[in-house]
Amino acid sequence: MQVVQWVARTRYHTTCQTEGVGLSFVVDNFERNGTQTKKNEGEARIDTIPTYDICIVGGGVNGCGIARDAAGRGLSVLLCEMNDLAQATSSASTKLFHGGLRYLENYEFRMVRESLIEREVLLGAMPHISWPLRFVLPHHKGLRPAWLLRLGLFIYDNLGGRKFLPGTRTVDLSNDSVGAPLRSDFVKAFEYSDCWVEDSRLVVLNAKDAAARGASIRTRTRCTSAEVQDGAWRVTLRGPDGSSETIKAATLVNAAGPWAEEVARNRARQNVSERLRLVRGSHIVVRKLFDHDRAYIFQNTDGRIVFAIPYENEFTLIGTTDVEHEGDPSTAKCTPEEADYLRALASEYFEHPITAEDIVWSYAGVRPLIDDGAEKASKATRDYTLKLETAQGAPLLNIFGGKITTYRKLAEEVLAELIKVMPKITGIWTAGVPLPGGNFPIDGYDALCNRLADANPDIPLKQVRRLVRAYGTEAERILEQIAKNDEQATDFGHGLSVAEVRHLMTEEWAMTADDVLWRRSKLGLLFQPDQVDRLQTWMQAAASDNRDVAAE
Questions:
Q1: Would you say 132 and 164 are in contact if contact means Cβ atoms under 8 Å apart?
Q2: What phi and psi values does residue 282 have, to the nearest 5 degrees?
Q3: Phi, psi at residue 448, to the nearest 5°?
Q4: Which of 284, 285, 259, 279 is nearest to 334 (CA)?
Q5: Is the pTM here over 0.85, yes or no?
Q6: CA separation for the pair 438, 428 (Å, rounded)
Q7: CATH architecture of 276-370
Q8: Domain extents for the chain?
Q9: Looking at domain 445-551, does it have CATH number 1.10.8?
Q10: pLDDT of 200-213, one tens digit each?
Q11: What is the rounded CA–CA span in Å between residue 63 and residue 67?
């Protein structure tokens, strides 16, 4: 039976993410997406090419945000991602929802204002994976004067109509705990608000909500070609097992991030005038440098800034750089020179210098910036451009640039562009609508943790709090499974249970240990090699068992 084989082949990277999904659901989903099915002697048979309103190429934050928005407006959507969700740029950010204080110097007031407004909209929709964070900006006497910093922060406080977050205050570093880790010659600082976000979980939760609204999410599935026939796109996909599939879509959306120019030219065979400037941003992670919960923003003599942020309870995250990247974006790594740059800059501020031996992990991602001719990579705009092409006979929308804070607004603008060629698109809806697990108050994290801890007294509070941070209200289902029997409670290490890994495999497209340890969580910072091997072995066996059950 072809449909059953399809379930077995794509169980972990399509909309069928719930344990025990039935064949009737899959058939109904095919029919709703325009594929006609016939039943003959108890067998389901696909007679035509699956057809969608929109095919999205790229499973980063923009692609998944667009998939969610479009599916929520009743459109049939297929999203293909050649690797895991958020495997590239969208899991390699500095993990911030922010306006971008330094962009005020580039006079990008519209972009900063839009980002600041959006910052609080997003905070309300995902209080489990995003939360307010206070930043301390020490005054460096040799750089920007104090009056200029205060003026910039006054604009930053008021440009976006701040509602929930507290404003800027002046800090005497000699009398405040935030001054303790710093060198004694820093005596004055300014403290202001921005927001933290778990970037890769943001992507996965958007994909999950899109799937719940009917979108087909295909991970490890590469778009190998796209051409227009009879007024529609025929898109060839290569799945994780190497098999090919052809689908039809009324519209093609290119959200491939740093690969967007390559997809437009080589897959869709479009001549595009826009050029991307690939800029690498690298980060280092060191053992915890301070005990308080505030972050630092440090100025440098080259005009750049670097953050030092509390990270995963036991670490400090330091980043980022702005370096021109050559070659395949998937090869991006923090170079020794970039690590030295970050260490040296942070060591100008911290009392105890940071050595190379202090680094426990580093990562890098490639920002797909619009090539606006800026002399320095740090001065290139972080804004985005949407380009709707119809010359080939079917709409193609290319997305160039963008930043994580504006992903939801970008998705709205994409759908606004597509209304020009797809009048059936309904109105906007995502503002204020929680992502999965985010249906609790902005300040309700502690209350939710306490409620679930009281209901599960045998489960360590540290594990409960981590689960709530990752899954919000959906942590309750995982905790119920852990409490149900010893097999579900089996611990791979650091509180990662069988129940949680099953959840990630069946509902969040996790297929490998890396998916679990570096994108669905950051437990990779704590896991030892033998623990990683054990987890990978178990996941391979579990995936094989599930495929066998689906094929029976």
A1: yes
A2: -110, 155
A3: -65, -45
A4: 284
A5: yes
A6: 20
A7: 2-Layer Sandwich (3.30)
A8: 276-370, 445-551
A9: yes
A10: 999 999 999 999 99
A11: 6
